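okkk here we go again. third time trying to get the 3-isopropylmalic acid bound version out, last two times i messed up the smiles copy paste (missing a bracket lol). double checked this time i swear
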Amino acid sequence: VRQHNIAVIAGDGIGIEVTASTLEVLRAVQKKVGGFELKFDELDYGSARYKAKGSYTPEGWLEHLRKFDAIFFGAVGDPDVPDHISLWDLILPMRQKFQQYVNVRPSAILPGIPARITNAQVGDLDWVIVRENTEGEYAGQGGRTHVGTPWETATEVSIFTRRGVERVMRFAFEIAQKRPRKLLTVVSKSNAQRYGLVLWDEVAELVSKDFPDVKWDKMLVDAMTVRMVSKPKSLDTIVTTNLHGDILSDLAAGVSGSIGIAHSSSLDPTRESPSLFEPVHGAAFDIMGKNLANPIAAIMSAAEMLRWLGENQAAEIVENACKTSIANGQTTGDLGGKLKTSEVTQVVLELI
Amino acid sequence: VRQHNIAVIAGDGIGIEVTASTLEVLRAVQKKVGGFELKFDELDYGSARYKAKGSYTPEGWLEHLRKFDAIFFGAVGDPDVPDHISLWDLILPMRQKFQQYVNVRPSAILPGIPARITNAQVGDLDWVIVRENTEGEYAGQGGRTHVGTPWETATEVSIFTRRGVERVMRFAFEIAQKRPRKLLTVVSKSNAQRYGLVLWDEVAELVSKDFPDVKWDKMLVDAMTVRMVSKPKSLDTIVTTNLHGDILSDLAAGVSGSIGIAHSSSLDPTRESPSLFEPVHGAAFDIMGKNLANPIAAIMSAAEMLRWLGENQAAEIVENACKTSIANGQTTGDLGGKLKTSEVTQVVLELI
Ligand SMILES: CC(C)[C@H](C(=O)O)[C@@H](O)C(=O)O
Ligand SMILES: CC(C)[C@H](C(=O)O)[C@@H](O)C(=O)O
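finally!!
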């Protein structure tokens, strides 16, 4: 049997609830398909640990995590901790340290979920957003001086390296090349931001030469939002910077109606470090403990994880079970259904 | 008669066509209402000048412009010139030099324009986006080293000053306070960007204390896009940073279906320098010279200019004429109509 070691970080809030559902589903599909074994290591990293022990993680956590084949992540965020602390103590260091330089976020209008734009039906919107995930606007540099005085100045420094841009661009062209429409849109803001974003566009030009069969175009991020809501069919694969990818992938989930099922894979394509799989939603303390969270985003993330680990058959079974439950209207409130977290989990388990 | 001196920069592409329409309309309303006189100074700043003489503007242009009461701007951009050059040579220096620190962008679903989201009808979406317009992500600092080598690194430096944030925040709270719903949403990305964007949120907290009757909340820009497409009625006045304001205002125009009429006022509320009024659309070389451009965005910008100059009656007449033409379906192709630029202009002139 193929053995896969998975680090499980349920984290905070509903992250804990949807992770529990996901582990049940993973155990079920492993039993059903056979031939592989998932070994879960459940880690207590998160805000509860921070509040009890003063840190999100134990010493040496990144080196500990490095040994796993993949990381499953629930959510992080706590009303008692400023978000920029919780995120920079837990999720963002993993993206950088493990060089998870691509973040893949698919969006589609699925049967059973009504789209939120007037001109798109099932089949009309099927996008993959490839987001740069380690540098750019999330490089993390910057600072504040004269704090609290009228002379205070703060900076945020975006850093773009040619190697960093090139590797994610190449990944995106490859994805586009493998999809039926072979269509790629490169998004930047190179008119107002004339250093890193101009580099972004230049690298796109260069890399495109190696993919003569991919039709590609460039868009500015502001105009891109209009295109997404007005001409969804004109888009297929999209590649963009860290911040713009964050924004556009939420918008994509919004227009396709799929925010409750949006999932995210932070990949190190070299496979030197573990990749990370997580739902896009956050810790959502307002609905925590009420059995209301939609577990589908987390379960779909786990399906992507199975695919990354080479367990394609298991991945497909999980994904299809999720899609069937949605098409049948067996959903939580966010998708218009009446079921609880545990009931949706049960439906998926039965479909498996 | 009250005299107003207006600098007119038609600029490039369809900017030239819609500016011509706008001047006709302004002359007509001046005649109709009386009591004021607009003196237009038409300046040749733009890409044609750059290609002929090597610069977008003559020496001393900013000092020349400073003497006017307002600036009317068409559009800038030319296929032969990289956008980051044309914009940093013409439009962006004006915003900074004249401390036009607020950019006001209203969006509404108007009778006659079908919205692009499924859950909003006329009256359901009536937003004012207040965008910081001089610093933040458009500060203009940054650079590139090792250009063209594999070691190339580029930076973009966002700069936020406490004074800069406070003045735009205060302006936004005032706008919100004057509107019936007294509702303000402050948008940032203070979870991933932990210096300037955290300052942004802190200043919002402080300024809010002076406006106890304004109900306000904070949103992250990514989640904000979802809220805009899914709960449009929950929003009213919005204040955000330079880049996020750029993105969200295009999205607002996209969801309300009003991209063809979106206009933008870059204001120096101290009135020490001239403010600038322009349509949001660009030079659009693809439709240039075809009499296809929608002149309404430019004409609506001019109405805002009249209001800024204290000519409220004239402003209202122009605005109502635009809205009536739209409600009657007398529109250009982008709004689903069949009229040419000149025909729409004619309709507006007759309504005045
Ligand atoms: C939690 C936060 C740092 C994160 C981001 O902005 O990247 C989230 O919004 C996401 O999209 O994964
Ligand atoms: C032309 C460009 C610099 C500008 C911006 O990004 O501010 C435009 O998109 C706008 O929204 O006014």
